[in-house]
Amino acid sequence: MVTIMLFTVRFAAQMLLLFTVWCSGTSASDAVSILPSTQALSLIVKEVTGDVRLPLLPANVSPHDFSLKPSHIRRLQGAELVVWLGPKVEPYLAKVMAQIPDHQQFIINQGQLALEYGQHPWTSPEYLLQGLQQLSLRMGKDWDSDAWLNQMNKLKQQLLAHQFTLTQKNQGYLVYHDGIGGFEGYFGLQHLASFTGADDQPPGAKQLATIAQLAQEQKVACVLIDHEVRPKLVNAVLSPSIDRITIDILATNSDSLIGYVNELQKAVLSCGADK
Asked: Half-sphere exposure of 273 toward its Cβ, with a 13 Å CA cutoff?
């Protein structure tokens, strides 16, 4: 009986030791409290870590002109790692992040691309790919880019073919504001004109006149509209016969990066498509 009891105690101690060693060997990234600033960045974090992290900003809010509340500041200060877009794209975060140690923050593609206020770099698959690679290295996670590159290549072939079809019809598409420049640059696309250059700037008279002329010449197949659209203004310039196609620049309705890029692609492919 004593032998059996000693064996049981010894076995329990060994199991406890193994459990302790296993826990200590677990990657540090598994326990890190990560706070992505936007929905698009939360999708990058999810792709790398496999975990869903609630972003600082509501999913349908642009990162350009957001006002921080005390609760937001507490979340930033309490996170072990803040993933954000940097002071040029997210100036509202610059002051707070300047007080947070470098090892507790990670700027996607810092120094890789020349970014300016008003741009939406996360619409570019190249930008997203670089962000995925950098964050996976930072977190010590393995991430294979082959599937991503293969998928993007398929989307590119489809988009270029559609762009060619529109060109043959002497038509193209409008955007409400220049919010998908990264997407267009990567896939070799170009819109005819935009209502405004940034989502917080009103359309100018010259831009409206250009758009009205293009519509009159029947060169407009559709207009891609986003979260900042002013429907009355669009309707005053474009006839109802020109399709209004909604695009989700902020990834509000996406639960994966591939899904996000796919939805942008579908929106462009639906422009001028035969009903």
From this structure: 14
- For residue 238, give the DSSP letter: S
pLDDT at 65: 66
**Domains (range + CATH), the chain:** 32-139 (3.40.50.1980), 147-269 (3.40.50.1980)
- How many CB atoms within 10 Å of residue 150? 9
DSSP secondary structure string, 88-115? TT-HHHHHHHTTS-GGGEEETTTTTS--
Q: Concatenated DSSP letters for 191-208?
A: -SEEEESSTTSPPPHHHH
Q: Give the other-Cβ count within 10 Å of 244's Cβ.
A: 16
Amino acid code (one letter) for 230: R
Cα dihedral: 130, 132, 133, 138 (round 10): 120
What digits encode the pLDDT tens for the residues 70-83? 999 999 999 999 99
